Amino acid sequence: MPWFPSPDEQPFRQKDPKEPPTEGTLAAYGLGLKPQGLSKAERLSRKRDFERVFRRGKRIDLPYLRVICAENGLPWRRIGFAVSKKVGNAVVRNRIKRLLRETFRKNKDLFPPGCDLVFIPRREIISLSPEKIALDLKEAFEKRC
């Protein structure tokens, strides 16, 4: 005799199997991603893109951060990170990347459109807030771009 699960045994299962999830695997459980998040199109991921930015980009230096900016020929901005192991262990490096991602996500208008940006942080950035970083970046981009 075959076994069939009762409806109470799988509480996260979709109620109506004909209704497809709107986006991603979490959406099937009603746990969609933030609408303000970064899309894949806004991220640098290929080695050749990073190399192109390092070769052709303009450098903007702050006491705690270097930003390299190069045109990408697209109507949107893309970001990437190059965080050295000298900055700290994996926990610290990931925290810095989250901090910079949040700064970028909330202040996209500060960065020139059609550019690839690579952020190279230094250890001192860990003690700063996203608002302070955004203010410094705004001043730096107004002066140099």
Summarize the structure in words.
By secondary structure, the protein is of the alpha+beta class. The protein has a single domain, classed as Ribosomal Protein S5, domain 2, CATH 3.30.230. It is built from three helices and four strands. Strands 1-2-4-3 form a four-stranded mixed beta sheet, sandwiched between helices. A hairpin with a 2-residue loop joins strand 1 (58-62) and strand 2. Helix 2 crosses helix 3 (130-144). The N and C termini lie far apart (73 Å). The mean pLDDT is 81.
Topology:
Layout: H1 47-56, E1 58-62, E2 65-71, E3 78-81, H2 90-106, E4 115-121, H3 130-144
Parallel strand pairs: 3-4
Antiparallel strand pairs: 1-2, 2-4
Helix pairs in contact: 2-3
Helix content percent band: 25-40%
> How would you classify the helix and strand content by structural class?
alpha+beta
Count of domains: 1
How many helix segments?
Answer: 3
Number of strands: 4
Q: Could you write a compact summary of the structure shown?
A:
The chain has about 140 residues and is an alpha+beta fold. It is about 30% helix and about 15% strand. It has one domain: 2-Layer Sandwich (Ribosomal Protein S5, domain 2), CATH 3.30.230.10.
Using brief descriptors, characterize the structure shown.
single chain; 145 residues; alpha+beta; Ribosomal Protein S5, domain 2; four-stranded mixed beta sheet; 16% strand
